[in-house]
Amino acid sequence: MRKGIIYCLLLLASFSAALAQNYDESKVPLYVLPDVLKTTGGKVIRSGEKWEKLRRPEVLRLFEDNIYGRMPVDYDSIRYMLTQDDVPEMDGKAVLKQVTVTVFRNKQSVQINVVLFVPTQPRKPVPVFLLINNRGKDNTDPTRVKKSEFWPAEMVVDSGFAIAAFHVSDLAPDDKETYMTGILEKLYPEQLNMDNGMKAIGAWAWGASRVMDYFETDRDIDAKKVIVVGHSRGGKTSLWAAAQDQRFAACVTNCSGNTGAALARRQFGERISRINTTFPHWFNNNYKQFNDKESALPVDQHMLISLIAPRPVYATNASKDLWADPTGTFLAMKAAEPVYALYNIKPELPKDPPGINTPVIGSHFGYHNREGEHNMTAYDWGNFIRFAKKF
Ligand code: GTR
Hints:
Blueprint: H1 2-19, H2 48-68, E1 77-89, E2 94-105, E3 108-119, E4 126-133, H3 153-158, E5 162-167, H4 183-186, H5 200-215, E6 221-231, H6 233-244, E7 250-254, H7 272-278, H8 301-306, E8 313-318, H9 326-341, E9 360-361, E10 365-370, H10 378-390
Helix pairs in contact: 5-6
The chain binds beta-D-galactopyranuronic acid.
């Protein structure tokens, strides 16, 4: 009986230790980041050319195999249907387009619904912000009855940019029981049997690339200036989308935290074990091997940002969102600077994280830590626009 109680207490103690998250900077363990510039064969990379030829493909594969899953590139055909075209909106300042992107493979298909506002003012084609929407669909209301800071279409249009969005549920439901019912079962069932097969976040990123396919056909849009944007789980996705699809001109990752822009090895706030337990349907099976073993990962998140080089990246955090580790995000960007340096891009970020509400906006890196909660607000968007105008 006593033995039983002791056993239960021990079990409880180890369970709560696993759940306990560290928010104390002094308790961040000493860690060594994998060298982004050294190939697995030990070769040191010294030029952008060698990075792209030797190391970049290797790092991309490491992320596919250990975290986000393989990104399928083949499909049989793709069709774009404009269900609404050139509908004047916003007192004539913009036109609304709604597009259904249908992708076919092995006689099956999926549909991605895109909402797009194009400003009427600047000469076309215009650059566009594409939001990977992981929140309610009403945040991107095409009728503009509901206006949301999460996707402030009027503000973006007034600044001369187009704004677009699609919803993640068109690709994979954000649910551990049903995530496979979208593109995974329909188009890529083989991925479900692979330990390095993609799951929901891979599927959402795949969707962003299919919307990119559409932009390449739309004469209103400058497809060389597509900025992919995501918040939180959507921000993990925008990074992954930009990392593997080099057609995206820039990436905005808002409060993306663990397995987004924050360094895993700091073990600050959310950890890999926690994210894999709560959201087993986001990352591939192999990633589960790194629960409580951050230092065994062959990558860390600075290498994900490096995959986007030399393209611009803006990462944000919120002061009360310690769960997403604002400092870890800043440090990941700093640790990606050596890859940008291969393209002669000088460090634009200060040595230490800037204060709250003090955006640092360079031509390649943008970072801020907004006062407040985990969210994406007009403040954040205002800075994304400033950043986009800069580059
Ligand atoms: C949290 C999760 C975070 C983040 C967030 C969100 O519960 O732990 O990694 O993705 O959800 O997407 O809002």
